[in-house]
Design brief:
Layout: H1 3-12, E1 20-22, E2 27-31, E3 36-38, E4 41-43, E5 51-57, E6 61-66, E7 69-70, E8 78-81, E9 84-87, E10 96-103, E11 111-121, E12 128-130, E13 134-136, E14 141-146, E15 155-160, E16 163-164, E17 173-176, E18 181-184, E19 193-200, E20 207-208, E21 212-217, H2 221-250, H3 252-260, H4 280-290
Length: about 290
Amino acid sequence: MLALPLLMILLQSPVCLSVTVSSNKPNVEVHEHSDAVLSCEFRTEKDQSPRIEWKKKGKGVTFVYFNQKFTSSYARRAKIEGATLTLHSVTQKDSGEYRCEVTAGEDHVNLGETIVTLNVLVPPHVPSCEVPSSVFVGAGLDLLCKDKLSVPPATYRWFKDNKALTATADTPYSIDPHKGSLKFQSVSKTDAGMYRCESSNNVGAPKSCVAQQLKIIEYPLNMTILIAGAAGFVVLALFCCICVCVCRRRGCCKKKDKKTKSAKPYNPPPPPPPPPIRNLKHYKQTQSFMI
């Protein structure tokens, strides 16, 4: 009997609900140049015509849909149904975090939002390949390959004469499939050939650069003689320096200096000058007296 009146009071009292916003797919991945559907669903307490806004978060926050219309950059390539946003022919620039905001002014709590992350996948592009035209025998060599546009980042394979290269413990080269590098510690004549690189990811077909010729050149005879002469000169100069240092340590130079030293002649100091004559008259009398 006491529970019945309490139940009636609860049924007659207003229930305070707020606007709720959600997405059935908060993470969206689509291929480049296809359509991206950003889901946004909402429920309100009283307001049947809430205000809907879409914003994109990047370095700042920019509007996508505001005041019941799209901003200029989305005007001709987007549509909205309810609160769900569809972007047509997306590119990598459209990747990012989007926020759906629903404002219901008549509700007790009148603002709700949900976040949808868009990742636009980009197939491989033709990579840039750095292959020198020639290199000397015995020199180190780095071949580089890069595709900066593919999403997710591409992995790389190197080919020589249309045969895929595989690095092992016995091969004279190493390969980094993530950086796209092919490194030789010391090239030989057998390393000459046509080299190309291929980039790939799981979005589209692999792409390859144009094969480039690598020539391995032996040092000419005159250059070999020049290198040998320079090396000999360096060895000779080093030998002379060692001999001089050893001689100085043994005191050879000091003994030679003592033998070659000559005694300096003794020069006595000159006699002091006579005192000056102060009284000329007295001097003459003294001289005459002495005579």
